[in-house]
Amino acid sequence: MSEFVNRILEWLLGFSPGAFGGADGWEVAFVAEYGSYMRLGLVLAFAAMIYLTVRSYRREGDAPLRAKIALATLRIAVIVIVFLVLLRPAVVLRFVKELRSTVVVLVDDSLSMGFDDPYVPDELRGELAASLEVDADELTQMSRLEIVRATLGRSEGVIDALAVDHPLMLMAFSTDSAAQQYTRPVATIDTSADPVGLDDLLPAETAAISMAESLAGRGFETDISRSIRDVLDRTRGRRVAGVVLISDGQITADGGDARLQAALDLANQRPVPLYAVMVGDPTPRKNLAVTSLDAPDRVRRQSTVEMAATITHRQLDGQEVAIRLMQRRSDDDESAWQPVLGADDQPVQEFITLGPAADADAAPAADMADVTPGEGTSVRTVTITFAPDEIGDFSYRVEADVHPDEENRDDNVSQPVAVRVTDERINVLVISGDASWEFQYLKNFLYRDSDSYRVSVWQQNADEEINQAGSTGMKLTKLPRTLTELLGRPDDAENPGYQVVILLDPQPTDGGFDGVFVEVLADFVGRGGGLCYVAGNKYSDTILLNPGPYEPLARMLPVTLSANTASDVARIREERPQPWQARLTSYGVDHQVMRLGGSAEDTKSAWSVLPGIYWSHPVYQVKPGARVLAEQSNPLRRTGRGAAEPLVAVHSPDAGRALYLGTNSTWRWRFVREGYYHRRFWANVIRFLAGSGASKRITITAGGERFTAGEPITVEVEAYEEGGGPVRADSFDIAMVDLDSGDEQTITLTPVDPDSPGGHFSGVISEDATAHSGRFRLTVRGEGPDFQDSVAFKDIIIELPQDESRRKEANETTMRLIGSRASAAGPDGNFLHLHDIDRLAEMIPPGRRTTVHKQPRELWDSKLTLLLIVGLLAAEWITRKAYNMA
Q1: First CA to last CA distance, the chain
Q2: What integer pLDDT is reported at residue 866 of this predicted model?
Q3: By three-state DSSP, how is residue 648 classified?
Q4: Is 296 helix (H, G, I), strand (E, B) or coil?
């Protein structure tokens, strides 16, 4: 029966009476939204219609009074219903709901959170020790994460206080693997929900246990901006009362400051309040570190060797320290390090007084990347000289005194560099068209280092006596005219021959630098000699662009030149030239010619501080098989094929080596670090051309020695057959060997240019292959006991980023910036020290809010309304007919 009644009511009203279920109450109301004038008009119209109805029926014939009253009542009822329909009557259901705002507790899980702190300020130490109820001395033995766990896990602490009024999301950020997500949930706490059957819901008292198991302080990067963005994405669509960020504030990700500002702006737009809770001691730490050691890879016994160590220090101005040079033979173990002894049998060392970088030698720009003004951080370079007295392969490193107040003492020793000490001197012939600055400074460098080089100079526009005075080898009266004169004889002291010939924009001369000499030079290179050609703006076009006797020289070079018209156009337009930086290629970073530092990063830093290039010779194309080591950074300087214009390029014509240098202004590098980079570059060029390591048929390069875990590594190989010709193949396999475990995996390379004569291959070691840190060797497997002697293998180190350890103190400035972005009372805004974290329960607004939602069920368009109107009108009509009313 009740079901039948419900169906009747649903048919009449348009909705089921069951729609009232779940409502906290109901009421009848008019939901039409009319303005004041519209309502006044409806009232006047209603009054007028009532008046007209009554007036009409009062004048209605001879009908009885009761009939007139009944008819008027029926008509007025219809009018009332019509006007009620215009006002849209409805049954309004009232639903009451309680909303709760979530609080996200975001904890830094990076490597720096595993550090302990001295807590130098007594006030900070005392208040934090009191909040944890531990002894102040015990506090200094606890890591930052241990302190965070103890703080958040306290009974009736901040977690319990916040959970009373808010659902909590406990999250951590940072990762030790590129494959892991950066921000990850630890636990969800909701005291108003029944956790039974919900694995991600935990009661407040178990939060500390879950956090202790999850947080380990192992992440190798701190990117606060990314963590904030991740939280905003995860909480999109829900009410958030605030995000509590617990961190030491150290940002090690690239572009950290700018990206942090953008993340804070995004949080303001949502808006989501941020509360910054700093853990750790912000007092700057004292530290001394040897960040790099630059040294040549090949030196001559008893010659003077320069090594340059880069020293960084913080908060140690005015302290005197000793910088000592250590050595061991390369095949000895790590315990064999011994001090290098000088001529007086005393250790080779330098005593320096630490001070601002402005008072010391200039350092490469990358060394300054770790320096923040006002923090007492300085960088300086210390040059150590010594004369090795033993032949062999050695490793050298620099050690600095440890200051008593230093906490990190592992970085007081540099990474070792490998140096080969020999008894060989390299014979060099230098030919220059005139007395240019490039020629003068190169000649002086070779002349002063007579222990390593025997040099014969031939300045074409100078007298014979001047050339002989500048030579430490053969005293030339003319340029060699035969191959025997150029190659010499090893047992002939008067004519030992040359290993390297350097041409500095030579001038065409009959009987001197002519076709005969060029033919002899071509035979010299074909038999394994080294050739360096330095382009100039006087004679290079005449020699290398015109057909004739100098064509063999043009064929030996790794590039084909274009006409040198740029300088003429510039002079005509009276333009002032602008310097452009020489830009290393990926192949050049790892090449021995361009290696100006102890590592690939040091080399990049060194090239970044060298003076720019004002002029370089235009290049039409790079020849097949040649390798570009450095190129023009000027976007307007392009080859005929649209590539960046080469500045330094090498290749191996026949059995020799040829190097092209497109500018004659390396002499300007002498003004950086007292000429160290100038000397290092030319020493590299000469050793390369002289065939240092020429017996290696296969050379592997990787663009550096140290790489970050999880990043791809580009590898290149230059491979030649035993007969000297380049390897021609569709692919080339190398092995990546873990030097610690012995595990090995194969990396397949493909030709750099399928149209080239071959010999050059490249490929990428994938992110999966580099996911684990350690020491690895890139080599080639082959048959025969002597095969490995022909491979110049490459040792690399894959490591976790070291940025987390550069500054161990907490960064209060960053944390105050985060806490200042939300409106809050008090001078510190939303910034708190960890010992004040209990104040969060007062600072974060209440998380409960009651809302009333009204849902109307309108009645006017129902069948009941229609039936009432039709029924009343029908009753009026029947009554009129009953009384014979028109």
Answers
A1: 45
A2: 77
A3: strand
A4: coil
| Residue with tokens 């009557």, as numbered in its chain | 89
Taken in order of first residue, the domains within the chain and their CATH numbers are 2-98+854-882 (no CATH), 102-283+809-846 (3.40.50.410), 287-421 (2.60.40.10), 425-689 (3.40.50.880), 698-804 (2.60.40.1930)
Question: So what's the pLDDT on residue 692?
Answer: 43
Q: What's the whole-number average pLDDT of the chain?
A: 80
Are 318 and 391 in contact, with CB atoms under 8 Å apart? no
The string of pLDDT tens digits covering residues 390-435 is: 888 888 999 988 877 776 777 788 888 888 888 878 899 999 999 8
Residue with tokens 């913080």: 314
| Contact predicate 731/746, CB 8 Å | no
Helices (H), 720-801: none
* pLDDT reported for residue 369: 36
Instruction: Kindly report the length of the chain.
Output: 886
- Minimal CA–CA distance to 662: which of 564, 760, 577, 596? 564
Name which of 119, 50, 33, 321 is nearest 810 in CA terms.
119
Q: Please state, in angstroms and rounded to a whole number, the distance separating the CA atoms of residues 502 and 530.
A: 8
For residues 364 and 609, the answer to whether their CB atoms sit within 8 Å is yes
* Rounded CA separation 514/509 (Å): 6
Residues of the chain above pLDDT 90, percent = 18
Q: Tokens for 402? A: 């440890």
- Return the DSSP state at 206: G
Closest CA to 414 of 372, 375, 376, 384: 384
With a cut of 70, say whether residue 387 has pLDDT above it. Answer: yes
CA dist 804 → 110, 310, 605, 835 (Å): 8, 20, 21, 24
What the block records as the tokens of 635 is 């976007």
Statement: residue 299 has pLDDT above 90:
no
* pLDDT at res. 21: 61
Q: What phi, psi does 842 have (nearest 5°)?
A: -85, -35
Cα–Cα distance for residue pair 203/224, rounded to 1 Å:
28
pLDDT in tens, 568-597: 555 555 466 788 899 999 888 878 899 888
Taking the whole predicted model, whether its pTM rises above 0.70 is answered as no
SS3 state of residue 394: strand
